[in-house]
Every structure is written in C-alpha cells, then in structure tokens.
Amino acid sequence: MSRTYNHFNVTSPEPYVAHVEINRPERLNAFYQEYLLTSPPPSKYAQVFNTLSHSPDVRSIVLSGAGPSFTVGLDIQKTNLAFPGSDGARKAWEIKRGVAEFQECISASEKCEKPVICVLHGFSFGLAIDIACTTDVRISSADTRFSVKEVDVGLAADIGTLSRLPKIVGSLSWVKDVALSARIFSAEEALRVGFVSAVESDKDAAVKRALEMASLIAGKSPVAVQSTKAIVNWSVDRTVADGLAYTQAWNAAALQTGDVGEAVGAMLGKRKARFEKL
C-alpha cells in the first residue's frame, strides 16, 4: 500500500502497518485550510484516517512528519482566520461552525478504529499537541520541543488540547502551566508527566520503535485490538461500572470470534497466529 495525498504520504513498511507522514517539510509541516477545512468534507487529514480506519489491510498506524519536525501547527500566513458578517451573533455562529469542523477533522485520528502511534520530533507546537492528544500512543525523539502555543497568537487552544491533555497527564497544575505560558518544554519533561510513553535518541530511532510497536500490534487479533481501543476510549469519561457494563455488551458479540481459538491454539502450538482480515 502506497498512496500520496496532498501533503500526506501513506506507505506500508510492514504487513498490516500504515505509516502516515505529514509532508510539507519546507514549511515545517505547518497546516492550512487545504488540510483542514476543504469543502466538501472530509478534509485531507480526516480523509486519510477515515480511509485507513476502514481498510482491511491496515491494523495499526504510525503518524510522523517528513523532515526534522512533526509540525509547527497552523501556517498563519496561509490560514484565513477572518469570518464574514458584521452582525456579532451571526459572526459567532460562523466561527462556531468553523471551529466545530476543525475539531471534527482532527478527531479523525481518535475515532479511527485502528491504534495510532504518534512520533513527535523536532518542533511540535500548537496543533501538534492537539493531534498528538487524539492518538493512542506517543513516542518522542530526544530533540523534540513542545509548546501549547495558542496564547502567543491571541487565542485559547480550541481543537482539543485543553479538553484532552488534562486527562492524559493527570496534572491540572502542569497543564495550566504550559497552556497559560506557551513555554517550550522538553521531551524529558513530556516523559516525566506522562504525555509521551518513551523518548528515543533521534527521529529515526523513534520511528523505528513506533514501527516495531505497530508491527507487534498488527500481529494480534484485529477483533481484540480494535475492541480494546473502542472500550478504553468509551470508558475514559465514564464510571467503572459503566465501563464494565459496556464491556459486557461489546464482548457478547466480540467473544464469538474464531480469533480466540486461533490465538490459544497458536500459543499452545508455539506457532505464529494467523487472523482473518477485519
């Protein structure tokens, strides 16, 4: 599988593994409307993840940036932040719709049925944090410089960081520290607070680790893996009792899969399991 979208490269470096690269390195992979708010929808970013989500040939995904940086966020020079209309209420509705469309686009990697492993490297500013927060696992290179940058351009981060980041790291004090100041923080600090789960020496090493993890996941039952992501994501904002009840309902169907017998048989027979496409 190899496909090139406008500013995205999608390849398959391992069986059932997709590698998505944000591909605008000459602008440090900065995003603008063509990525996000194209009409008719979906946007290019959402289109990539929606396609991979439904592909039976994909079981796990790695997301990184082409070149030295993941992304510096929005390309201010090419992004139109003006909205039509002179009436305040009507302009507010236009802004609200625009932000909702933007949020929906970036949420595509969270809603993707397949696990998404994000490799953060170089500059990872603004929208980079929004994107990373939607992914399932985050790995960083040692040189990564992070920033929740939005207050420096006069607005509150509105694409998901302020809603997702507190749940990821579990420290409201630290989230407010970085979001209110827009200060740059290091990969070491990101690891310490739990924003990333691993730091590798450089981008190549981080991508290598992500691909190894993606390949390991891709060798598991796709029914089990996709069920696990769905149940964990659903349970995050609910009580334990609600999560248990949801798991009962989900597994009432999922446990009927033949993958259980194949997985157990492979372990007992000391062979590699083979699972049908999903």
TrEMBL record:
Pathway: Lipid metabolism; fatty acid beta-oxidation. Pfam families: ECH_1 (PF00378). Its main location: other. The keyword Hydrolase does not apply. InterPro entries: ClpP/crotonase-like_dom_sf, Ech1-like, Enoyl-CoA_hydra/iso, Enoyl-CoA_hydra_C. It is found in: Peroxisome. It comes from the Eukaryota. GO terms for molecular function: delta(3,5)-delta(2,4)-dienoyl-CoA isomerase activity. GO terms for cellular component: mitochondrion; peroxisome. The keyword Metal-binding does not apply. Keywords: Acetylation, Fatty acid metabolism, Isomerase, Lipid metabolism, Peroxisome. One of its GO terms (biological process) is fatty acid beta-oxidation. Belongs to the enoyl-CoA hydratase/isomerase family. This is Enoyl-CoA hydratase.
